[in-house]
Amino acid sequence: MHYKLTVLDKEFRKNSHLKKAVLVLLFLWLGGCSSAGYYWDAVSGHAELLNAQRSLDEVLADPAVSVKTRETLKTMLKAREFASQELGLPDNDSYRNYVDLGREYAVWNVVATAQFSLSPKQGCFVFVGCISYRGYYRQAQAQDYADSLQAEGLDVQVSGARAYSTLGWSDDPLLNTMLYRSEARQVGIIFHELAHQQLYIKGDSTFNESFATAVEQEGIRRWFLAQGNSAGYQRYQDSQQRDEQFKQLLLQVREELQLLYQAKKDVTEKQEEKVQIFSELKQHFARLRKTDPAFSVYEGWMAQDLNNAHLALIATYNEYVPAFAQLLKEKQGELPAFYAELKKIAQEDALTRRNLLHQWAKKAR
């Protein structure tokens, strides 16, 4: 540990990106519950990412960069301009530089729950409040942490994330991990991450992710409309319908597990029924995939050794999306008015905020 601090101290003196990373992560992500080792690993990981960034102009002019990558980056650069000019999202230096991390994911998140619970273990930080996972820049470190939690008897999931946001505290670059095959996903991830910079409520993950998802979906709709690409939007809608059908299947299983865990049964009986429910989920999915081969896109996820942790966050990204869509409709599609209303609501306490969202969701049905 002393060696690591000494090395970082030397780097800190000469490296402006490391200074920025320290400040960002000190005030944003890291709180009293974080160990010193986790702190410095996070700082060095973010600094490493910032150090590797190149301007998009430089990357696009580099003949060593593949034609496919350059074309994708051009699309994402257009989407970046579209986000600020047409969606009213922050106009800053985020997503105007590029980093090739040389790996599939930007970070790895660890989610954990108790054996008979679907409530995720919380990690609490200074400005973002309590969130339902813990992130790592290195997969091995994420796995080590997951193994330690599993040894305590917790259900654990380690999953890769293609992007993360510093909420505007730092100028986040585009990453190779964000270069999806689908145009909708390419532009959508920019809209989603910039939405976090537009509005973020400390400690309310469901609000934050649902809001970003709602902005992402509306942004994609407007993007394809502006491009005159109705076929592209139709493909996106078809994909969304499959996602929704798959999500509903998982939510149904989540509800079954919730009822089981609340029941007055002994540990052995609960564990046996838990195993059975997950087994039936896999069987149900196999039938679904046979009926429609397009569902094979979820095959990798379903092939995992599923447990509570895999279902803990399933509603987080979508629960309030219908409510936000209804509010935008009431604002006649005017995004500035939509954002302004939500910033007012952000000042309310969690219960008041939730009640307002439920009212809009009811209107949307």
From TrEMBL:
Keyword Membrane carried by entry: yes
Keyword Transmembrane helix: yes
GO BP terms: proteolysis
A GO molecular function held by the record: peptidase activity
PROSITE patterns: PROKAR_LIPOPROTEIN
Transmembrane segments: 21-40
Assigned keywords, A-Z: Hydrolase, Membrane, Protease, Transmembrane, Transmembrane helix
One Pfam family recorded for the sequence: Aminopep
UniProt protein name: PUTATIVE ZINC PROTEASE PROTEIN
Organism of origin: hydrothermal vent metagenome
